[in-house]
Amino acid sequence: TVGVEHAPHITFAAYRASIAGVFLLVLGLISKKTQPQGVLQWILIIFIGIGATSIGFYGMFHASEFVSPGIATVITNFQPMLTAILAFWLLKEKINQVQTLAILLGFIGILIITSKNSQGESSISLVGFLYLIVAISGISISNILMKKLSGEIDALTAMGWQLTIGSLFLWAMAVFSEPTSEVNWTKEFIFSLSILSLFGTSLAYWLWFRVLNEVSLMYANAYSFLVPAFGVSIGLFFFDESFSPKTIIGLVVIFTGIVLINLPKKERSDAG
User: Fold this and answer.
1) Which helix (H) or strand (E) holds 249?
2) Dist CA 196 CA 172 (whole Å)
3) pTM, to two decimals
4) In whole angstroms, how far apart are CA 247 and each of 98, 113, 254?
5) Which of 185, 244, 251, 272 has its CA 20 to 30 A from that of 176?
6) What percent of the chain is predicted at pLDDT more than 90?
7) Shortest CA distance to 23 belongs to which of 196, 173, 209, 211?
């Protein structure tokens, strides 16, 4: 919130991605990590950067103009559901009946939240919702590509390059759509940008890629249902958000769907 109040939205996103990417690349160079090898690795990194950073940041930062942080966090966590569908198509991972039900619950929950109330007003802006869908789509596709790349390249190098490459597209969009020079470089803004870049972006992407090196995408997404709970709590305690009964019902439905789809399939042996 501090960031977008002190800089145009996409400009702030570009600064955040650039700082995060360069920071990881510098760490990779210092620790002498291997750079991407071969055309395929570079292609995957470029498309991850476009999906996770360019499209993901573009959608999320524009959505912040129309959607409150708590609601945005919850809707964005429909991403594990979309990732499950893509994993079924592209990674040949199976989706059982419980997970199928969870996908339907996610759609129903979002429809409840975005439906019109008794005064004919929507709970959230349709424009903001569409920007979130754009962000979710980019992130979901990039997660599939990250899983394909995991185990083949160091996390510092992979995430450093994808953030840096993704930031170039953000800078291009910012230059053609915003007054990029209108940045209020206050101490508060610099602190906010630094924390979000180094911890909210660099550390988060590095940890996520490291996790994908060790476990399946579906298992990693099992913990994503914790994020909406944090998002709602932050919205309530730090942004004075309030939720109508209808919104609460929608959130509960979404939470139920996210939990169901992210429950790891229990493996049972035939022994005994």
Assistant:
1) helix 245-262
2) 21
3) 0.77
4) 24, 5, 10
5) 185
6) 35
7) 196
